[in-house]
Fold:
Amino acid sequence: MVSPKIDAEPLRTILKLERKRNYANTAVFGGIDRYLNNWAEETRIKIASSPPLLARFYELQLDKPSYATWDTGKRKAWVTDILNWLAQPEEIACTPPKMAAQPHTPTVSHTTIARKTTTHPSEKGLDSPTTAVKGVAASIAGKLERLGGKTIRDLLYLFPRRHIDYSQRKTIDQLEIGQEQTALVTVWESRITRLGYQQGTEIIVGDETGNMRVVWFNQPYLAKRFRTNTQLVLSGRVSEFRYAKQFENPEWEIIEDKELIHTGRLVPVYPLTQGLYPRQMRTIMRRVVDEWAWQIPDFLPQDTRNRHQLLELPEAITQAHFPDNYLKKAEARKRLAFDELFLLQLGVLSKKRDWQESQPGNSLSVNEATVNKFLQSMPFSLTSAQQSVLQEILSDIKLFKPMARLLQGDVGSGKTVVATAALMVAFDNGYQGALMAPTEILAEQHFRSIGSLLSKISQTTEEQGNTCRYQGFFAKPLTFALLTGSLNEKEKDNLRQQIQEGAIDITVGTHALIQKGVEFQKLGLAVIDEQHRFGVLQRSSLRQKGFNPHMLVMTATPIPRTMALTLYGDLDLSVIDEMPPGRQKIVTRWVEPEKRGQAYDFLHQRIAEGEQAFVICPLIEESESVEARAAVAEYEHLSRDVFPDLRLGLLHGKMPANEKERTMRNFRDGKLDILVSTSVVEVGIDVPNATVMLVEAADRFGLSQLHQFRGRVGRGQKKSYCLLLSENPSPEGIERLRAIETIHDGFRLAEKDLELRGPGEFFGTRQSGLPDLRMARLSDTPLLELARAEAITLFHSDSDLSKPEHQPLAKEMARVWQSQGEWS
Ligand code: ADP
Ligand code: MG
Structure:
């Protein structure tokens, strides 16, 4: 038989904390009374079979706590009493009959309680499933999981998207029509009523200043809940009905002794999913916060917290959900954002150390004469930005420390040329080089353009499909290969073998290059194009190719410096901030809805001249399949109704890779006039004959993305155009459209974009390999720099987090980063 006993540990912890805080009723959020109410209810049931326990329980007023109303002296006396009581195990565990028979052990000892906590450590711990929350059944748990909430801890970090301010309480005569307000009222009468075609609830309420009508559509069952004389808090927008004020579908809450959740405060608005309702979600979250927030260990070192006046973690989490006021909300955000940035920085720093210090790199010698000869043989001279970036790269690769550099440069700024020069240096040193692109078509493109460069300066002696050999420029012949997923197995095997034997000097490829089975004999330099498609993890696996190669990552999505330092803090930064001379500006225009026909006519004209066009379908965030369906519909509509005489192709994210590649190739080879596409076409595809880019619902895209789209045209000599359609842009949408019309510099656009939209949207897709940022704004430079500085200090003092005081932090790091896969 199970003996009735009290699980005293949580209460003991709280009361000790309360004592430490001088009985200010702050040890647990929502106050001691509220916590005790829950605790007492459960406990009373557990000990119901033990009259002596129950008696003591009542004597100590554990059942009807009124801590909040006591003065400090009384609080102190009471807390001391309870703690004393809890400290005596025999008092809080009732002796089971069998054990009572043993005279020398009349009671259950300490170990029973200790065991209780160890045998069910996760019974209601932070890592318990969400079903541990009262009222969360399996079906609701499934819905919570869809929102990313698998465990209690996940829920604590599932923050509201925003708060509605219902904290301004007004009397009925003060209520203003059209405003979101809150009133405390008494119900006079309540009835089910017919509102239009539906049944609803209508009540008449009043306070000392007047009466008013309140209606809810669709919720006739409410009528019964609001009996006459019920005290009610109503929050919502006040409207006018027959010259009188009324609340329509307000949030409501019956006043009991508990804290308000849905009304009369800053009310959280949570992300929802089908079948999960706002009230329900708030109620669940309130329970979770009350019961678990205080259990979250604060992993930040105390001195860090003090130095920057950061809230303690449990309080920050509580205030992020149910803030007392705006100030508290801001403080909570600061603490939580700091955590995210700080953990991110620490991870990124250790990543960099791993890359650079765990294995030495290969020092390459740079033969200036060869480099110059190569540069001089090109049909143009490097811009000064290209030159200085090349110098940075060359001085990096001379070191034994492997280079880890991020090269940023607008579309068409000439990154590839610089990378090619560096690859030639690697080759000149007897090392292999690799260039990785995110898609096959881009890999092919690189293979062609570098190939044509090489063929200008040397003789092509051997050429078969995927390999070329160039002779006469370097001291020895250079073998150049293309490795992509679309080769057949035999070809791939063959290439892999040659790479392994060192018979191939430079390989261009897709991620097939870093998949298992490709071993380089002597990889000296790896170049990764279009960083945002490659994660940190892929970068790591590149290093595992036996060698510790120098690495150059290139991106055309310009990122402001502080942000780059944060996200790619493991990389050093280079920027090409200058375009080659003579680059044409792409004429960019917002086409107003009534001029859509003219835009289509313009496409017809350009295509009649033998040019090609892109049409980008609206961004649909709901899901890729919905977006794909919309793209198909658009493609059919355009093919049938608008351009029946032209050859159209379709590209979307749900198509199989080979089909995508085929369509892209057909377009590039001029077999299609118009490519209708979702945003998948964003990355650097180069079709010099394409001169018009038409973007549907352009206001939905970010500026950087629009700039990327625009960069798909104007690749050749012909004048090129970007037409932006937008039916009904918001004021902010209009601001973006105006910006893209006038600003042609990718960096300035990126900054503008950040300013207008914030970083989450700025990056579009989540950065793979990095932890989520939920609270942090990458545009918050001061906090970012603070977190970075703190991380650097800590990293210098204890880089592997081995000091005892850093153990909680080490644990948190492991948790945050492990969910992203191994750092290696
Ligand atoms: P990115 O990779 O940065 O988009 P690329 O290296 O592909 O840019 O260069 C874009 C085009 O500009 C290529 O056709 C390239 O040959 C040409 N180019 C690169 N650098 C220069 C330069 N300094 N002067 C003139 N044309 C250049
Ligand atoms: Mg490029």
Observations:
- The pocket of adenosine-5'-diphosphate (ligand 1) is lined by residues 380, 382-383, 386, 409, 411-417, 556, 580, 684 (CB under 6 Å).
